[in-house]
Design a protein that fits this description.
By secondary structure, the chain is an alpha/beta fold. It is built from 18 helices and 15 strands. A 5-stranded mixed β-sheet has the order 1-5-4-3-2. A 5-stranded antiparallel β-sheet has the order 7-6-10-9-8, sandwiched between helices. A 5-stranded mixed β-sheet has the order 12-13-11-14-15, sandwiched between helices. Helix 2 packs parallel to helix 3, helix 14 packs across helix 15 and helix 14 packs across helix 18.
Length: 529
């Protein structure tokens, strides 16, 4: 029971609070009567101390020190019988009590201590019985949520109804996985926005580190809450095999959570961990079914028959959809150690969950220290990749590709990038191709020439444009000299220059585009049969 409740009941109702009026929400665990020296050695956390004042210091530093020592022991308050040995609490005791937040109560000498202890202890026993019944109810409801619940929203709803408070279950990235709030809190997008802002404020303040390190629920400081009307929040880390996979946030409100409420939060965290673990396992099973598909596609082993296409569609791959292949390279040597293997599995699971939150079916394949992920071209890869702590990972991204042949090409592109990746960075094939050309990568040079001039070399009608490209490069893009060399009018040359820009994909008005065309032309002439 709280001290305020005890003071509202007979016989303590006859008392008068002298100090610490703002701290009457403390829990009373026992009533202790002590009236001899070394008083602090006989009390414990939550005790309500009854004293006649026989050994209470009358004034001076000793009167303040005894209050400070008792407060350090965690007692919830001191009841002094007056007037007899003391007419009132000494002023230094009152000042110290206000400073440390320890309630001091004066009660008429005529009120027997035996009646106080009997009344408080009887109420404590009654409340403990009620707590046991409520604990059983909480246990039953949360267990039911664990067995029959379909989402973390069910867990949040059960806990929210039990505590009559707003509940938010969030991922380690701050995404809301489940919420519940009384009608007065509102809901929907507004509710999620408040939860996200509280999460960011807690992370920026360093409070989440305290939650991660604690075995019990932690009250967040929230020195600068995201909302001016934001109530205190109690947070608890949801763990699966020691790994923090989410948080339970409880908006405490003006009435502090009881010890039973805190145990309910811990129980809800365990149920949430079971649900997340179950969802992970389902996701990993589904992902493993797709591993063979993705590996077959990017390695060119996919059998193009109706049965294979039907299985691929069931796993989420659409042959008419443009995809990019993302190859994640772990900063781990091959063969993988056990920690490296766990690191790869954990990243694959997290990547899968991240895609599922975007309503994208995960298509992954694991191989040694690499994770290959097919993602729709519509996904902003940079925004998605920003969700991960990428300092120990590198990412290679292919060009958009369609169909079975396109997936094989995507596999070849990222394979060429693997040796050039740097941890913590995203490397797109388009961006890496030309630097590789300049470094003398023969494969990159062949692809670069094919991309810039290949269509012209293979098409007879493109020979005029090919000759124009070679002449322009040789003449340093001097239009008059190039036109004379080709024996054409300069207007014709300008028309060809426009078509050449369109076919090569280069901006030939810019120095960078002209330089790349010159490099392609030199490489073409070097390898011309």
């Amino acid at each position: 029971m709280r001290l305020a409740e005890a003071l509202s009941c007979k016989p303590l109702a006859a008392g008068c609070v002298i100090a610490g009026k703002n701290h009457l929400g403390k829990e009373v665990s026992w009533v202790q009567v002590v009236d001899h020296p070394d008083i602090e050695s006989w009390v414990k956390d939550g005790h309500l101390l009854l004293s006649t004042g026989y050994n209470w210091p009358k004034d001076g530093a000793a009167a303040a020190e005894i209050v400070e020592r008792l407060s350090a022991k965690g007692i919830c308050g001191v009841v002094l019988a007056v007037p007899h040995f003391l007419d009132h609490f000494p002023l230094p005791s009152i000042a110290a009590a206000e400073r440390v937040g320890l309630p001091l109560i004066e009660i008429p000498w005529e009120v027997p201590f035996s009646e106080i202890t009997q009344a408080v202890h009887r109420e404590l026993v009654d409340q403990q019985g009620q707590a046991l019944a409520r604990s059983e109810q909480i246990h039953r409801q949360l267990t039911e949520a664990a067995v029959s619940g379909h989402s973390l929203g069910d867990v949040a709803q059960v806990l929210g109804c039990v505590l009559d408070r707003r509940i938010d279950i969030l991922s380690v990235d701050g995404n809301v996985l489940g919420s519940h709030a009384p009608v007065s809190f509102g809901g929907g997008a507004a509710l999620h926005a408040v939860a996200a802002s509280v999460f960011l404020a807690a992370r920026n303040a360093g409070d989440l580190k305290r939650v991660d390190d604690a075995a019990n629920p932690v009250r967040l400081r929230m020195d600068e809450p995201a909302e001016k009307t934001c109530s205190p929040v109690v947070a608890y880390a949801v763990r699966v095999r020691g790994e923090c996979v989410g948080y339970v946030f409880v908006t405490e409100g003006s009435l502090l959570l009881t010890a039973l409420d805190l145990r309910a939060i811990e129980h809800a965290g365990t149920v949430a961990a079971l649900q997340i673990s179950h969802q992970r396992e389902l996701s990993m099973q589904e992902a493993r079914l797709g591993y063979a598909l993705v590996a077959a596609l990017i390695e060119g082993r996919f059998e193009s028959n109706p049965q294979s296409f039907e299985r691929a569609r069931l796993l989420g791959w659409q042959d008419a959809c443009p995809y990019r292949l993302c190859a994640v390279l772990l900063d781990e040597p091959n063969p993988l150690s056990h920690p490296g293997f766990d690191k790869r599995e954990a990243f694959a699971a997290r990547a899968g969950f991240s895609l599922q939150r975007r309503n994208i079916r995960p298509l992954l394949s694991l191989s040694a220290n690499q994770i290959h992920i097919l993602v729709p071209d519509s996904l902003n890869v940079e925004t998605w990749w920003a969700e991960f702590p990428a300092s120990h990972y590198a990412l290679a991204v292919s060009q958009p590709k369609i169909g079975v042949a396109g997936m094989r090409e995507a596999g070849a592109e990222v394979a060429e990038l693997i040796g050039h990746l740097k941890p913590g960075r995203v490397h797109h094939y388009d961006e890496m191709l030309f630097p590789r050309v300049l470094r003398g990568d023969a494969g990159a040079q062949r692809q670069f020439v094919a991309r810039v001039l290949g269509a012209l070399a293979d098409d007879r009608r493109g020979h005029a444009l090919l000759d124009t490209a070679l002449a322009l490069s040789d003449e340093g893009f001097h239009l008059q000299h190039t036109a004379q060399r080709l024996g054409i009018h300069i207007s014709t040359l300008r028309y060809r220059l426009q078509r050449l820009s369109e076919s090569s994909g280069l901006d030939l008005e810019a120095a960078e585009g002209r330089f790349r065309l010159q490099v392609a032309a030199r490489l073409y002439l070097m390898n011309e049969p």
